[in-house]
Structure formats: C-alpha cells, structure tokens
Specification:
The complex is a heterodimer. In chain A, a hairpin with a 7-residue loop joins strand 9 and strand 10. By secondary structure, chain A is mainly β. In chain A, about 0% of the residues lie in helices and about 55% in strands. Chain A is globular and about 40 Å long. Chain B has no helices and eleven strands. Chain B is about 0% helix and about 55% strand. The chains are: A mainly beta, B mainly beta. Chains A and B meet through strand 5, strand 9 and strand 10 of A and strand 4 and strand 5 of B.
C-alpha cells in the first residue's frame, strides 16, 4: 500500500518565482496536513484539511502561501512569489478522521536562491 | 515559552544501552501523546501513540505519560545503531485532535 506521495522531492528556484508542491494522501484518509521544517523553527503546521475543507490555516506565514485540496486524493501548496527565507523541507501528512495518527510523506526540499 | 519543550541533544549512547528521552509541556489540556522517529532526510514516522496517562510498551519501546507533572518519556531498550535518528514528541488537545504540537526533536546517536 503506497504511503503519502509528494512531488517534487527537490526544488531549486530563484527568488520571485512561483513554487507549487504536490501531495497525494493515503487512500481513505480524510485529513491532510502541510508542515514546514527548518533547523531554527522545527516542524511547523501550516494548514490542514478535513474532507477537503480547510480547517485551520493559522500557520500559513503570509499571503504568499496558499493551499488547495480539490479532491480527496490531491493537494497543492503554492508559494508566490518565493523568497530565500522560504527555503525549508515541506512535509505533507494524512490521517483518518477517526484518530490523529498522522503519516508523513518523504518531503520536498525547497531551496530559493 | 514554547508549549512543548524537548532537549535537542545530541544524545550519544553505546550500543545496547537504554535511551531515555523526554518532553515537558505547559498546556494541561493535552490528551493525546505521540513519539515520532525521523531518519536523516526522511519524513517523521509514528512510533508510539498514547491517550492520557500511563505506560505503553511495544517491543523495545516504552512510552510513559505523567499528566500531573506534564511530562512524557520514551525509553528504548537494547539500543541499536539503527535507532540513530531524531525523535520528536507530539501532542494534541481533545477537541482539536487533528492539530499536533511538536517538540523540537532530540537527536540520538547509538555508537557500535
């Protein structure tokens, strides 16, 4: 059974460019989470969805960040325009609605030059 | 002050020793407690999941929760070099179970 799938695994871009990160949750999981991990700030929750509906986006740092979940099997996190301080590893995680055991994807390592 | 405090380490132990990890928290409303293991350049993976107070054992791993002291622990018996990783504690409130508050993570190195 496939776990959480994220793409791309690595992204290098220049400041000002648009970046789109993608996530496919585990089939049957109704909750999806986007996290950012840095050495300085650790693992931070950006936004999460239940049944494709955004529930809490209080962790989204700025209006430059946006996330969508058009259906149960796909979500995107977009940064426009990107800045060097956005460089981090971005994780997607999913869980069933029945509990909060979150399963993480392999992450996307983003470098903004 | 952060809601969840965790010593970042690194914690270095010889193979076969017991690894002892802990987190303290400030919000007494936390009810669900988890430990995740994260290998270098990988995503966190769930190791242990406990609800409220008490102990839970799974193989070489034991998780303890002391809600009166707002303190949780993870013990790894007979540690192996393959246990070298960063261990993150996480916890959540009863009424917003989807949102986890993570500790900073403790780096563990088990030397052969």
């Amino acid at each position: 059974d496939a776990g959480v799938i994220q793409s791309p695994r690595h992204e290098v871009t220049e400041m000002g460019q648009e970046v789109t990160l993608r996530c496919k949750p585990i089939s049957g999981h109704n909750s999806l989470f986007w996290y950012r991990q840095t050495m300085m700030r650790g693992l931070e929750l950006l936004i999460y969805f239940n049944n494709n509906v955004p529930i809490d986006d209080s962790g989204m740092p700025e209006d430059r960040f946006s996330a969508k979940m058009p259906n149960a099997s796909f979500s995107t996190l977009k940064i426009q325009p990107s800045e060097p301080r956005d460089s981090a590893v971005y994780f997607c995680a999913s869980s069933p609605l029945s509990n909060n055991e979150q399963f993480f994807g392999p992450g996307t390592r983003l470098t903004v030059l | 002050q952060k809601e969840v405090e965790q010593d970042p380490g690194p914690l270095s132990v010889p193979e076969g020793a017991i690894v002892s990890l802990n987190c303290t928290y400030s919000n007494s409303a936390f009810q669900y407690f988890m430990w995740y293991r994260q290998y270098s350049r990988k995503g966190p993976e769930l190791l242990m999941y406990t609800y409220s107070s008490g102990n839970k054992e799974d193989g070489r791993f034991t998780a303890q929760v002391d809600k009166s002291s707002k303190y949780i622990s993870l013990f790894i018996r007979d540690s192996q070099p393959s246990d070298s990783a960063t261990y993150l504690c996480a916890m959540s409130l009863t009424d917003s179970w989807g949102k986890l508050q993570f500790g900073a993570g403790t780096q563990v190195v088990v030397t052969p």
